[in-house]
TrEMBL record:
Keywords: Signal. One of its GO terms (cellular component) is extracellular region. Residues 1-20 form the signal peptide. InterPro entries: Chitin-bd_dom, Chitin-bd_dom_sf. The keyword Transport does not apply. Residues 37-85 form the Chitin-binding type-2 domain. Gene3D superfamilies: Chitin binding domain. It comes from Anopheles christyi. This is Chitin-binding type-2 domain-containing protein. It holds the Pfam family CBM_14.
């Protein structure tokens, strides 16, 4: 009888311990570990700065599609509006992220999910089926001095595709684009 009771206690302790380990390892983790490279465009000349996800004294600068981490000098904090380090401690106060349940995010089936709203908005998945609403940053084009709202394309924030306008004039297509003009002959019509 003592042996059964001792055996029951051992089994109870093992079950309790394994449940404790399961719940300890069952924490919310992002499906995309590492720096936020997905927010960095591949266009080499665009300037993009990103706030660090944890520390207000750190930031990322996008270089060739990669997020490179930098740290402000001692006593300074990263200002997301001016992309500089300043002494304003209020920059450490951030809004809570918008977290929603997205079924396709469970167990990281997807890393990202389209919101169905604007092309710059997407969900960044967590392993437990929840996701944080994310917006692609605005990039500065130093050549023109203009700002470009990046769009989420193929799991990455990129320059939006240029608007292309096709004009049909008989047997020839004239394609106009803000960067080039080309003429295409339609061989099917000739």
């Amino acid at each position: 009888m003592d042996c059964r009771m001792w055996y029951s206690i051992v089994v109870l302790l093992l079950v309790t311990g394994s449940l404790g380990l399961y719940s300890a390892n069952n924490e919310r983790c992002t499906c995309v570990p590492g720096p936020p490279d997905y927010l960095c465009p591949t266009a080499p000349l665009l300037q993009v700065y990103l706030p660090h996800e944890l520390y207000c004294t750190r930031y990322y600068k996008c270089t060739d599609g990669r997020a490179i981490e930098f740290q402000c000098p001692y006593g300074l904090y990263f200002d997301t509006q001016n992309n500089t380090c300043t002494c304003d401690f209020k920059l450490c106060y951030r809004q809570d992220p918008c977290i929603v349940f997205v079924d396709s995010c469970r167990c990281c089936q997807q890393k990202f999910e389209n919101t169905g709203l604007a092309p710059e908005n997407f969900y960044l998945c967590y392993n437990d089926g929840y996701a944080v609403a994310t917006t692609c940053p605005v990039a500065l084009d130093p050549c023109t001095g203009s700002q470009v709202q990046l769009q989420f394309v193929n799991h990455k924030c990129e320059v939006p595709p240029p608007s292309t306008q096709a004009i049909y004039l008989g047997m020839t297509f004239y394609i106009t684009h803000k960067y080039f003009k080309e003429v295409y002959n339609d061989p099917k019509i000739q």
